[in-house]
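Take a record:
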Amino acid sequence: MSASITNVADLSDRSIMGDDRLARTSRMAYVVAVISLIAAAFVAWKQNDPHGLAMIWLQNGIFVLTLSLGAFFFVMVQHITNAGWAVAIRRVAEAQAANLTWIWVLFLVPMFWLLITNREWNGFGHGLAIIWPWADMAHLSEHSPAEGAIVAQKTAFLNPTFFMIRACFYFAFWALATRWFLKTSRRQDQTGDATLSTKMRYAAAPCLILFALTSTFAAVDWIMSLSPAWFSTMFGIYFFAGTCAGGFSIIALGCLRLQSMGYLRGVITAEHYQDIGKMIWAFGIVFWAYIAFSQYMLIWYGNLPEETVWFLARQVGDWAWVSVALLFGHFVIPFLFFISRWMKRWRGTLAFGALWMLAFAWIDIYWLVMPVVPQDVATFTTYDALASAYATTSTGLGNPLNYLMLVGFVGISIGSATGRLSQGSVLCRRDPRLNESLQFENI
């Protein structure tokens, strides 16, 4: 059977070399992105809500970031484990991960909002406020003295200057590392030098350590510090699990799309799809649920007000339904769906499952970024009283700006990745483990 798999693998240039088919797809993605962002700009102008615009921008920017971080993690794991099965699909992951060379541009707007001191453009809700409340300690201390007292002890870490320095380091590492892995992999396509595989494997180890540190601190900086008095030692690993859900799903969809366009015929088989489905199930579903439950259980059990208040904001009004939807949509339903090997092997069901996971990965980021802790939470003596007072709290999911921004950012991401694939081989064609990948079978 292994020999038959090798024989049907089409390694002709039309099957493995990027060409105008991908270039056209890239251009179409960019056109859709531009149209969507123009529409988003019009909606934002009509809404005249600078803070809301900045939060939606930040949320969608983080979502697109997670897709590439998940792909970057996938690339490094395959190298460090010397995995042969993934050679057939690794170039798709490398192309997606390489979006980290430009994603920093999307974060210029939230950073710009951080530096704005004009109170009109920073105002919302309870008077002056900004995306990250710790950036204006005078306002925070005036309007929320208890929270301000806690955050004042964190100013050595939470201050605009150090915040920007850290962001520059994160983006510099991600950009340089992903560019190097893609460039080295493509050089192997040209030279066939097997030692380049060894170099990438050795580089993957320190890069994984730096990846863990940078992704954790980025999650703390850009998401957790939106509620600066709150903290969770498990937040970074929760964010990592979310990057796996989105990143592995986009890799699966990328491979499926390439094959539907006539690429990689017989190269990627049901065996490979089953394994990428396993990774979605293990990292993006089971591990995500384990970390989510552990974080919630520890905070619930400890019952400390400065910790529970973060979850209170996600249990009042319509946010309670979003929390329930995440439980079932990000864990229960996909857990049962992906546990079957056939759902992972059939292309149609895998595509559906991957799209489902992408949708809930986006909702998960929205759930992390958007809820606002009630300013008067300390005045309530019972949870029932708080829930009753905020029973009509809206999630804002009906705002069309969310989806226009999402389509725009994802369109840019797809356009960039497919454009990159169009410029060379869509297969790591001279990797010494390619034959192992072509003959790969699940037991």
Observations:
- The two ends are 13 Å apart (CA to CA).
- The chain has one domain: 2-438.
- The CA atoms of residues 95 and 417 lie 5 Å apart.
